[in-house]
Design goal:
Length: about 230
């Protein structure tokens, strides 16, 4: 995107602004820029800075700037403010929550980023970033997870347990039967398969299925007598 900045670098006024932007703390007021060029000017003046925040007068203006700015910078995020008037509707909106969490995640990971938001968003109350960092869950393909513990952690983080996942912020449990002996036999089967002993592995499978089916039948019979 340096090709878009090159024409501005030829202007003496822009060169002076670019030189003074980090010279001292404070504000630099720029006048005379037409609306259609404001996004271009903001991108050019912030070139080389790791963290950038664009504060807009309204939520509608923030969304407009976000759509234009992400064409110039792919690491652009929209942080929507909480709607105090329709708080309950905002609370149930997982999409707004997802957008806020994307900003916090990028910030915690130390990624270069541009955040576009409105002045109302500065009224949001957030927990310390150290607390957020402690609640990160790192799961790998070979991670051994405890089903009950994982369900509790997800619920504490605000996830909703559903029968079927239909959107973000939800989780479902599949094949969650806790059969201790079956799980132990499964580990033995895998060990035999790795050693190339498929006959022994198949023998464990047949025995396990027979015992599981017999125990289930006995349990169903006892329940029928209780009724």
């Amino acid at each position: 995107m340096q090709a878009l900045i090159a024409p501005l670098n030829e202007l003496a006024e822009f060169e002076e602004l670019h030189k003074n932007r980090t010279k001292e703390r404070g504000m630099i007021r720029v006048c005379g820029c037409v609306n259609s060029q404001k996004t271009h000017m903001m991108y050019a003046l912030s070139d080389g800075l790791k963290y950038k925040v664009i504060a807009c007068s309204s939520e509608l203006k923030a969304k407009q700037i976000y759509e234009e700015y992400r064409f110039l910078d792919p690491y652009t995020y929209l942080y929507p403010a909480k709607d105090l008037l329709f708080y309950q509707a905002d609370l149930r909106s997982k999409e707004l929550l997802r957008q806020r969490m994307e900003v916090l995640q990028a910030l915690m990971e130390g990624k270069p980023m541009t955040v576009v938001t409105s002045f109302d968003a500065f009224l949001d109350s957030l927990i310390p970033k150290e607390v957020i960092g402690e609640r990160f869950l790192h799961i790998k393909n070979d991670s051994a997870l405890d089903l009950g513990d994982m369900q509790k952690k997800l619920a504490d983080l605000g996830y909703d347990r559903e029968v079927q996942i239909e959107g973000i912020g939800q989780f479902a449990v599949r094949n969650g039967m806790q059969i201790e002996k079956t799980n132990e036999n499964l580990r033995k089967m895998i060990e035999y398969m790795r050693k190339g002993d498929s006959e022994q592995s198949f023998a464990i499978l047949k025995t396990d299925h027979f015992e599981t089916g017999r125990n289930s039948a006995l349990k169903a019979e006892s329940i029928e007598h209780i009724q």
